[in-house]
Amino acid sequence: MRRRPLHMSDEALDALGPALVELRAELKIPLAFPKRVLKAADKAVAETPLHHKDATHLPFFTIDPPTSKDLDQAMHLERRPGGGFRVYYAIADVATYVRSGSPLDVEARDRIETLYFPDLKVPLHPPVLSEDAVSLLPGKDRPALLWQHDLDADGNVTESSVSRAMVRSRAKLSYEGVQQAIEDGTAEECLTLLREIGELRETVEIERGGLSVNLPDQEVTFRDGSFRLDYVAMLPVEGWNEQISLMTGMAAAQIMIDSGTGILRTQKEHTDQVVGRLHEIAKCLGIDWDLGVPYATLVRDLDPTKRTHMAFLTEATTNMPRAEYTIFRDHQTPEHTEHATIAAPYTHCTAPLRRLVDRYTGELCVAACADKPPPKWVLDALHCLPCDLARGKGGVADRQTVDLAEAVVLMHRQGEVFDAAVIDTDAERDDPLTGRVYLADPAVLAKITANDGQKLRLGSSVRARLERADLSSDGDKVLFSLT
């Protein structure tokens, strides 16, 4: 799923702009591409021969935020004669233009991923590639890695393969537009199929023990003379769209495992100690969790709009084992190949315009499906890829951007008291003095402190006084105290 840029009004950006500039400088984020990289991109577009098979007869469509230009994925869905479905999933073919060792490749290995800020985007590749020649724009013939998934009538994948092809998207759709068309009954068959297949895949996910935790995003606007921060829930169509991507990532992982060389996105299960603590947290919050009920089943039934459920989900996601990239080759398959949250082997392969690793996994899968050995340039890079990928700055940039936005919303409200719910506490103390609170309005998650003698109980409703909302603070930019 595409990371959502934090939505922000022009007025909010005026207040936040200097802080974002300072943040990017602190993180040493390269904003402009060197001239040699831009020249290499222009040359690649002008001179790279395309020998892809023709699949432009398939009526692909994309679903993205309205302003997006870097379109990684396009799909075409159809029913199979005799039952079941066929999913064609086109992924932008970055490797055709970005050759190993070229200035484009060196620059991408430095950037690692596209970064999204409220005021600008810092792309992984020059715009002539990411927003034009490689982007799956409507009405344009584009090179792609074309996945074909055959599914049975219950949504189970029976066969998957990928090869290079020229594709042409017929329409650039938005999540909101697709959701509205489905709800009011005006959606074309391709979109009703997305819903049908997406819901079947969600059932398959439940059956295998997978988990999708959809905590609301935060959105900043300026209304009635003041800044507002609200929670925005994910639309159902975003979940159905994500299921197509997850299905492809699982298929790619299995193809690489079978071929003997690959890059997996792995995550271990919760330890018994963590599960035990989560059971105690659920009990404290008044959430029924029988010992025989799997963690994934419990979480799936929770409603993040309820304060106690929000508190549990926050604790649960905070305590999830960290996902990592696992490399293997020469059929030396690692002992642990699964991603615990997905409950299956999985890899990143559907967003090569925005993630470095997807270019490598895509090439490994194309080679395996063509019964060819892995490309040498991929093999040569495998040993250092995990370290390269660990340098990505997307996570820290996202977190600090949200911290700054929260400070903007609250910066003139020091001393005010808000209704809040405690969603996290210092687990090292029997009577914790620090934690995090959830405010429903404005939509803020921030640190809170209590004095000796006060009780900070997980899931409790409290009155929280705003002590600090400071864009320039080196510590917590927003801080509350328990009244």
By DSSP (H or I, 4+ residues per run), the number of helices equals: 14
State the end-to-end CA separation. Answer: 40 Å
Largest sheet: 6 strands, mixed
* CA radius of gyration: 23 Å
Q: β content, as a range?
A: 15-25%
Mean pLDDT: 89
Report the count of strand segments.
19
Choose one word for the global shape.
globular
- Return the structural class: alpha+beta
Uncertain stretches = none
Helix content: 25-40%
Describe the protein's architecture and organization:
The protein is of the alpha+beta class. It is built from 14 helices and 19 strands. The protein has helices at residues 10-26, 35-47, 103-111, 127-133, 175-184, 189-208, 236-259, 272-285, 295-300, 307-318, 357-369, 376-382, 385-390, 394-410, and strands at 53-54, 60-63, 73-79, 85-92, 115-116, 121-122, 141-151, 157-173, 217-223, 226-232, 262-266, 324-328, 338-339, 344-345, 417-425, 434-439, 444-449, 461-469, 478-482. Strands 1, 2, 3, 4, 7 and 8 form a 6-stranded mixed sheet that branches. The radius of gyration is 23 Å and the shape is globular. The mean pLDDT is 89.
Identify the notable features of this structure and list them briefly:
single chain, 483 residues, alpha+beta, six-stranded mixed sheet, five-stranded mixed barrel, 19 strands, 24% strand
Q: What's the structural blueprint in terms of helices and strands?
A:
Elements: H1 10-26, H2 35-47, E1 53-54, E2 60-63, E3 73-79, E4 85-92, H3 103-111, E5 115-116, E6 121-122, H4 127-133, E7 141-151, E8 157-173, H5 175-184, H6 189-208, E9 217-223, E10 226-232, H7 236-259, E11 262-266, H8 272-285, H9 295-300, H10 307-318, E12 324-328, E13 338-339, E14 344-345, H11 357-369, H12 376-382, H13 385-390, H14 394-410, E15 417-425, E16 434-439, E17 444-449, E18 461-469, E19 478-482
Parallel strand pairs: 1-8, 2-8, 17-19
Antiparallel strand pairs: 3-4, 4-7, 5-6, 7-8, 9-10, 11-12, 13-14, 15-16, 15-18, 16-17, 18-19
Helix pairs in contact: 1-14, 6-7, 7-11, 8-10
